[in-house]
TrEMBL record:
Its main location: membrane. GO terms for cellular component: plasma membrane. This is Uncharacterized protein. HAMAP family: UPF0060. It comes from Novosphingobium subterraneum. SUPFAM superfamilies: Multidrug resistance efflux transporter EmrE (SSF103481). The keyword NAD does not apply. Keywords: Cell membrane, Membrane, Transmembrane, Transmembrane helix.
Amino acid sequence: MPTLQTGLIYALAALAEIAGCFSFWAWLRLDKSAWWVAPGMVSLAIFAWLLTLVDTSAAGRAFAAYGGVYIAASLIWLWSVEGARPDRWDVIGAAICLVGAGLILVGPGRSA
């Protein structure tokens, strides 16, 4: 699977996971209706399905590499949805995680 396609899958998975988790956050922490949970559960199911599309022989490797993307996407969510701008330490930390995710995916002998 081309790296660009894997990146797109991870980006969509991150959006689905963060949206699903945020629905629970909104219900339990922001006093929104419990109806927020239903679309959140659908979103979390889509997230899980998307990760199965990553071309790797081991689920754990797909999940580990996804972790770096999730961290970066969470900071984008923080800024775009919650209105809190990430600081330089957030950005540096996310960059380090993305480099690590790339190494996990495309290191020697990797198929993705």
